[in-house]
Specification:
The chain is of the alpha/beta class. It has helices at about 25-35, 50-55, 65-75, 85-90, 115-125, 140-155, 175-180, 190-200, 200-205, 215-245, 250-260, 280-295, 300-325, 350-360, 375-380, 390-395, 410, 415-420, 435-440, 460-465; strands spanning about 20, 40-45, 80, 95, 130-135, 160-165, 185, 210-215, 335, 365-370, 385, 400-405, 425-430, 445-450. Bound molecules: uridine-5'-diphosphate-xylopyranose.
Length: about 475
């Protein structure tokens, strides 16, 4: 199928005007990409700092490729930003709501305050037929509840319709995933709503992107189910890593062997420190919480295990560090390589890397952290940790080095050169990305999650046996 170049599509006469409420990670990307696709877009947020940054061409988070697209959209005059909900209500034909649903304080439930308020504030002001489209990840049943609520407060009553369009973009690949998604999902309650969504996503649908249309609760569930499945796959291989650790087996070899089975596949089967970020952890907890509320908690009680397996990788890493340090971390100088929840991101929400750094610190280690992009965000969360600006500085004098986020800079480092800087050549590769043999040959005590502690180099093993 021919792939159309979606880099700058000419605007169509009579195209729907789009607003995007919430210009965080998801909303900013959606607004920018919709403008790039040729629509007139208004981005809306209650935070003037975010709006000012975006309006002046600055993306307030790290996302490769997005600043260039923002510039393109602003230069083309298709994208504007405001904090004014009156302006948004007057402007838009289709309103996308992209505000966050963080984990509620003291609970596993999703905090719905921002979603509810965005829908209500907008609905109150809408005076002509329009479509409100939820993109946020929400507990199943939210769209139905919100439909009643917005139709009650809106001057146009039932003329204001609601749809759900879950978003599957990955941080680090946000532009690609938005412009060329592997599927689109529309949750609709009327043919009119479906028609509007088809118009809005026409350039993407014309590329041959698969479209799945369902009702509102199904569309809401797709997102929860997708993220739960991905989390399950990661925790599955990390559970195997635990078995490997007590049997002397190697989880990286095991994962490779599984990956060749086309029914299993190799994606999301990378063993290591596990998942974090603004989505997977909170989404599986909120899904579990919602299932309990609905009286079907047993159906997905296994998600508790998925969460536990994931968190155990962090404490296992601390155990390994303690072991390498000779039994106690007190006063030990530890280099933490990485703070972001994954590479090519500055996001430290529920980041396994930063959590491990925090746990090491609480055990008395002198923790120094370096992340190529996430230092500022990480420092905001844990100001007690020491942050430095380079790989050379972070490993300087370290007694134990931990690779926690698999940035290329860390993968590509030379074990000899690093070895010259540390106090002790001891490293824990929590992401299983380093060349173990190269490190061991350079005299490092190399440890990894799910892999045997002592692998003799083949030649040395034989000669020792003969001796
Ligand atoms: C995820 C989903 O992929 C996306 O569809 C959804 O919309 C939002 O959540 P994102 O949070 O950007 O996207 O990260 P992703 O690339 O999916 O990685 C999630 C976490 O899993 C990361 O912490 C990553 O390090 C970890 N991971 C991923 C593994 O530990 N092993 C793997 O094999 C894959």
């Amino acid at each position: 199928m021919a792939t159309q170049n979606l880099d700058l599509v000419t605007p169509r006469v009579g195209s729907p005007r789009i607003t995007v409420i919430g210009t965080g990670y998801l909303g900013a990307t959606h607004a920018i990409c919709m403008a790039v696709l040729g629509y007139d877009v208004l981005g809306v947020d209650v935070d003037p700092a975010k709006i000012d940054a975006l309006a002046s061409g600055r993306v307030p988070f790290y996302e490769p490729g997005l600043p260039e697209k923002l510039r393109q959209a602003l230069d083309a005059g298709r994208l504007r930003f405001t904090t004014d909900f009156d302006e948004a209500a007057a402007f838009g034909d289709v309103h996308f709501i992209c505000v966050g649903t963080p984990q509620a304080p003291g609970s596993h439930a999703a905090d719905m305050r921002y979603v509810d308020s965005a829908f209500i504030e907008l609905a109150r002001r809408i005076t002509r037929k329009a479509l409100l489209v939820g993109k946020s990840t929400v507990p199943v049943g939210t769209a139905e509840r919100l439909t009643a609520l917005v139709q009650e407060v809106s001057p146009i009553g039932a003329e204001l319709e609601l749809a759900w369009n879950p978003e599957f973009l990955r941080e680090g690949f946000a532009v690609e995933d938005t412009l060329h998604p592997d599927r689109l999902v529309f949750g609709v309650a009327s043919e009119w709503a479906e028609e509007q969504l088809r118009r809005v996503f026409r350039p993407i649908l014309d590329e041959g992107t698969p479209l799945v249309v369902g009702d509102l609760p199904t569309a809401e569930l797709v997102k929860a189910a997708a993220n739960s499945f991905l989390a399950t796959k990661i925790s599955y291989i990390n559970a195997m890593a635990e078995i490997c650790e007590t049997t002397g087996a190697d989880v990286t070899v095991l994962a490779e062997a599984l990956s060749h089975d086309a029914r299993i596949g190799g994606k999301f089967l990378k063993p290591g420190l596990g998942f974090g970020g603004g989505c997977l952890p909170k989404d599986i907890r909120a899904f579990r919480h919602r299932a309990e509320e609905l009286g079907v908690g047993d159906a997905i009680s296994f998600l508790d295990q998925i969460d536990q397996i994931n968190l155990r990788r962090r404490s296992r890493t601390v155990d390994l560090a303690r072991e390498l340090a000779g039994g106690s971390l007190d006063g030990v100088k530890v280099a933490a390589l990485g703070a972001a929840f994954k590479p090519n991101s500055d996001d430290v929400r529920d980041a396994p890397a930063l959590d491990v750094a925090r746990m090491l610190y609480l055990e008395g280690a002198k923790v120094v952290v370096y992340d190529p992009e996430a230092n500022v965000n990480a420092h905001r969360v844990y100001p007690d940790l020491d942050f430095v600006e380079s790989l050379a500085e972070v490993v300087d004098g370290a007694e134990v080095v931990l690779l926690l986020t698999e940035w290329d800079e860390f993968r590509d480092a030379d074990p000899e050169a690093l070895g010259d800087l540390v106090a002790e050549r001891r490293i824990i590769d929590t992401r299983n990305v380093l060349d173990a043999d190269a490190y061991r040959s350079a005299g490092w005590e190399y440890r990894a999650l799910g892999r045997p502690a002592h692998v003799e180099l083949p030649v040395a093993a034989e000669s020792e046996a003969v001796a």
